[in-house]
Amino acid sequence: MADLFYGRVETDAVVVGAGGANSQLCSNCGKEVQNSRLVDEFQASDSKLCSNCEKRHGHAHVAHLSHYLFLENLIHVTWTCNGCNKSCTELQDTLCYFCDICKFYLCRSCFQPKKYLLHEHSLTKTDVRCIYTASQGGWKCDCCGRNNGREHYLPRHCKICQFDLCEKCCQPQRSTLHLHILYKANTELIYQRFSGGWRCDSCASRFHPNTNKFPYHCDICEFDLCDNCMRITDSK
Fold first, then answer.
1. Mind telling me which InterPro entries this protein's record contains (predicted)?
2. Considering its fold, how many domains does the chain have in total?
3. The whole model's pTM is what?
């Protein structure tokens, strides 16, 4: 299995980036490097940036392994984040991390690792094609069980546990049955005093973590909804 290291994939035969082990080419744009420093993010002697890419301060990220991402204020461009599929209009933001070689966009939220009530470790948007090579990047959400759709290779991923989370399970949800925002949560984490057992506060159904441990949860009130009650309120 490939080892991810600050946005780079290390294998016996592959070096990511335009510059090879003995190359004097920029690891980002492929242009000749002259008097460049080593790239701090990689901590490797074969990773260099040309003066132009160095001035722009490139960021290595596991969501886009081919090139560096640059924080840009794209005020005259309509863009959609490759991580969450939200447009700059929906996000109400013009700043994003951008690869002008691939036209790859990552919003500021997707760029950052995040903690969720669904998993004990931080999750980072990751191109899992380099991790799940046997399935050619195929994965399924460890919360809802849905398989990824075509060309959707960027789950929230835990490199420690190989835990993957789809975008829908990350999002806040509203219900007419409760005042506050609800999030999917893992009851084995939030209700350890009950060994992960929980009850829906709408229909009063009780659940064991072996059968269902992912309610829609309010972290303020400890209010929980089962999937069925959430679907009923969604349809009203």
1. C1-like_sf
2. 3
3. 0.75
